[in-house]
Amino acid sequence: MSAQSPTMMTEPTPGRRRSKPGSQTALRARNQQRLLEALLTGGPQTQAELSRTTGLSNATVSNIVREMSQAQLVNTEPTTSSGRRALSVRLNDTGAVAAGIDIGRRHVRVVLATLGYQILEEASISLPLGHTADEGMDAAGELFNRVLADAGVERHRVLGAGVGIPGPIDRRTGTVVRGAILPEWVGVNMREDLAARLRVPVFFDNDANLGALAQVTWGPHGGCENLIFVKVASGIGAGLVINGSLFYGHVGVTGEIGHATISDHGLVCRCGNRGCLETVASTSTMIDLLSRTAAEPVSTADIMRQAAAGDPATLRVVDDAGMAVGRAVAGIANTLNPEVIVVGGSLTGLGDTFLDPIRRGLLRHAVPLIGETTTVTMSSLGDRAEALGAASLVLAQAGAVL
């Protein structure tokens, strides 16, 4: 899996003898580097998966893994893949770590991960609704420092921090553009402002993109070449994995399905258009609808609790939202023909109660063959997906840093 990262450094490690081009030693070194890059970007994999990822033969992969294990570069352990016995390969911890930071409308979450894709420490805090960019970045910096201290990790061991926010980012300038669920952040240059607070290299992206990246690195979809991750929360966005890589389009603004028109005569959206998906299916819309007849304002937790209890009004609101999401996703599916659509966000606890109407909406509006052959599933990573994806963003760059 590639995150469209900068080209890996090809200069030999200082102190290492340079091999002659075309020699067996040089070939082994190149093949080992291919396996290292595959493990850095894709996390733990079986030898068969490494063979498919790198294009190397099973025998070559087996020999290189044995050499890397003897050199304590990787750890191996028995596992099961597709019902067969296999050997899982994981990078050994060198002491370097990656940070993943998810800044949302009401929260900040920070995780620390090793090169072997193991979580060292994580924590989250709440943010006030409508917080400014400075408040959000200050909170992220303070929580980052606290997590480092709790894990006993010195700052120089941090390769970098991946950061996600719920909004489109112009990748040419590093600025948040209009349409973000955090309007207070529009025009902010995270590349400069947040790096100054964290004092480590910063890699940033839209949260839905990071959610998609997490599914193919931390989640169960490591071998998936074409995947759509849909985050349903206060806003709705999609991260697109196409041919094994995150897709960014021309300037980085992709997957904005929250602003796909569902009803020409619907409510006016914050983007200025009318009848957008977010006006029908976001958690904010669900909360507004259900709070009208409730004695007290309804929360996201209330939606899940009431749905589990079979409350008719809640089930209707969830069903309508799911059908709308399925309709919007069908448009992307008809274009990309993905293997899997993964649904994440704050409603993952609803399970099939939310997935079933999404599937119905997809089947109704997608080309029949696409609707029938596309798997729709809930993210297994819960509310950690975006932070884990942010850490993966750093790990994907690690070959250029180490």
Task: Please sum up the structure shown.
The protein has 13 helices and 15 strands. The chain has 402 residues and is α/β, with parallel strands linked by helices.
Provide an overview of this structure.
The chain is built from 13 helices and 15 strands. It has 402 residues and is of the alpha/beta class. It has 3 domains: 78 residues, Arc Repressor Mutant, subunit A (Orthogonal Bundle); 133 residues, Nucleotidyltransferase, domain 5; 157 residues, ATPase, nucleotide binding domain (Nucleotidyltransferase, domain 5), CATH 3.30.420.40. Strand 5 and strand 6 form a beta hairpin. The chain starts with 23 loop residues before the first helix and ends with a helix.
Task: List the defining traits of the structure above.
402 residues; alpha/beta; Arc Repressor Mutant, subunit A; Nucleotidyltransferase, domain 5; 5-stranded mixed beta sheet; disordered N terminus; DNA-binding transcription factor activity; ROK; ROK family transcriptional regulator; ArsR-like_HTH
Q: How would you describe the shape?
A: globular
Provide the gyration radius in Å.
22 Å
Structural class: alpha/beta
Q: How many distinct helices?
A: 13
Q: Mind summarizing the main beta sheet? A: 5 strands, mixed
Which percent range fits the helix content?
40-55%
CATH H-level superfamily title of the largest domain: ATPase, nucleotide binding domain
Region (Disordered): 1-25
Biased composition (Polar residues): 1-10
GO molecular function: DNA-binding transcription factor activity
InterPro entries: ArsR-like_HTH, ATPase_NBD, HTH_MarR-typ, ROK, ROK_cs, WH-like_DNA-bd_sf, WH_DNA-bd_sf
